[in-house]
Design goal:
By secondary structure, this protein is an alpha/beta fold. It is built from 18 helices and 20 strands. The protein starts with 8 loop residues before the first strand and ends in a 6-residue tail after the last helix.
Length: 502
């Protein structure tokens, strides 16, 4: 094999077993120099285990790793770093009380001749990296004030400061807008052209085909295929991943759409959104689309009483409702599943049962004393109904997969028996198979008469699940499309402020 085609990194027969279960089984493939190599598969397919082996966090039980054709043992993360293997993960790990620049170079501060921190150089180097990414914040910005998307960009900036030969990106665009994603992709291509190999892990197949040169598919711990990205359309990738067709991703049941149950008129929060008016009907799934920053989440949080409104009115089932607090919203049959499930939706050290009961504790504590039997019965019901994969209802949610964590958040709000459910990015960060399960649950709830407002950055999800689509741009509602007239092009044009004629 010539030097030009020899893999930078090659896996031969990699196997890892936990308690008799194969997390990886005889996985063999190569990663070529100067490529973006996408790694796809469902949760549980073995992607995370493979990344841990490449970064030295765990050791394989069998098999060998070759770097530049030489057998290497990556004994620990420090060894991986010395070999030029760096990983950045889906959930940002930042120091909230430090500045952006201090986070970018955490543990690697440039030093002056006196061995003190070279603050001017630190800020200058951080500013250069931030400019390369095209972000809107500067090196002195306090991290505590950054949103989810900006924290993800900060995580990317941290990874770019290292002299990586192989950079692993795990869901790097999960919370980014299309513009921010485009900036990231441009950076990825520049890194590739400079000789850095990118291992790109994403559940968004449109991103995989847009950025990847090669795609490797894992399923149930085994290697299914490694092929050029141009040879793998979306439906073929899905078939290889889960053995199901693209149509199975959006199992929408027919629902009988009834009377108006929710009406918003002129909702305004100064500087955030303005004059937002819409209606929701019983049994209807209404998609709320728009780029990150368009005001979708902010409208939902105001309706649920998390944030205050400056003006506008809300009516639920014909009765005026003032969204003063989440508790008041719950009493009126309104529930909200937040975008940031880890920090806003769950108490991670607590069990499935404790998280499931959190929104209905008064009903489980007659006389101020918790009835554990009722709590357990409630958790078991939703564990079965939503097919939550766990050892028991006593398992702490921190140890669950992302998809199962999302189901626990959903069970918490369904336990409150809402009539109107706002879902903000309900399949964020979950695999294709779990998405189909969540979609099936959403569709079934609507068929039972629940009204659903679905907020999603994934356009295929909005188009596949919605009976009607509302589009926001810069804090305003700019379009309303029926299921029949909605297309990707029309939604994007409305969200971007581009006329169809253009």
């Amino acid at each position: 094999m010539s030097a030009e085609t020899a893999p930078l990194l090659e896996l031969r027969g990699i196997t890892k077993t936990y308690g008799g279960v194969h997390a990886l089984s005889d996985v063999s493939f190569g990663i070529q120099p100067r490529t973006v190599h996408a790694l796809v598969g469902e949760n549980g397919a073995g992607k995370s285990t493979l990344v841990k082996i490449l970064t030295g966090v765990i050791q394989p039980d069998e098999g060998t790793l070759l770097i530049d054709g030489e057998v290497r043992r990556i004994a620990d993360p420090q060894t991986a770093h010395k070999l030029g293997i760096v990983a950045m993960y889906q959930e940002p790990t930042v120091f909230q009380d430090l500045s952006v620049a201090e986070n970018v170079f955490a543990g690697r501060h440039p030093r002056s001749g006196l061995r003190t921190v070279a603050w001017r150089q630190l800020r200058s180097d951080a500013s250069r990296i931030l400019d390369e990414l095209g972000v809107d914040f500067g090196p002195d910005t306090p991290v505590r004030g950054l949103g989810v998307a900006d924290r993800q960009l900060l995580e990317i900036a941290k990874a770019l400061t290292s002299s990586a030969r192989l950079l692993i990106m795990d869901e790097p665009t999960a919370a980014l807008s299309p513009h921010e994603s485009d900036n990231l992709f441009a950076t990825v291509r520049r890194l590739r052209d400079r000789g850095v190999v990118i291992v790109f892990i994403s559940h968004r197949l449109e991103e995989v085909t847009a950025i990847a040169d090669t795609v490797t598919v894992l399923r149930d711990g085994g290697h299914v295929a490694t092929r050029p990205a141009g040879e793998l359309p979306h439906d073929e990738i899905i078939r290889l991943m889960v053995g199901r067709s693209l149509d199975a991703l959006f199992p929408k049941e027919p629902a009988e759409i009834g009377d108006v149950v929710f009406k918003a008129e002129g909702l305004t929060r100064r500087g955030v959104f303005s004059d937002v008016s819409f209606e929701l009907r019983r049994g209807e799934i209404v998609g709320l689309a728009g780029f990150v920053g368009s005001g979708r989440t902010e409208v939902a949080q105001a309706i649920f009483g998390i944030d205050s409104l400056d003006s506008g009115t809300v009516a639920i089932e014909g009765r005026r409702f003032r969204p003063r607090s989440p508790r008041a919203a719950l009493r009126r049959g309104l529930a909200y599943l937040p975008e940031d499930r880890l920090n806003q939706g769950l108490v991670q050290p607590m069990s499935i049962a404790q998280n499931t009961s959190m929104a209905v504790l008064p009903a489980l504590t007659p006389g101020g004393v918790l009835r554990p039997r009722r709590e357990r019965a409630l958790a078991r019901r939703f564990m079965e109904q939503l097919r939550i994969r766990a050892t028991s209802i006593a398992q702490v949610v921190r140890s669950l997969s992302g998809g199962n964590q999302q189901k626990v958040v959903l069970s918490k709000w369904l336990a409150a028996n809402p009539r109107i459910l706002i879902l903000d990015e309900p399949t964020h960060g979950v695999d294709v198979g779990t998405k189909a399960e969540v979609h099936r649950t959403i569709s079934g709830l609507a068929a039972q008469g629940l009204t659903i407002l679905l907020i999603s950055s994934e356009l295929l999800e909005i188009l596949g699940m919605s009976d009607r689509i509302l589009v926001m741009r810069e804090g305003r509602l700019v379009a309303e499309l029926s299921r029949e007239e909605a297309t990707q092009e029309r939604v994007i044009q409305a969200a971007a402020g581009v006329s169809e004629a253009a």
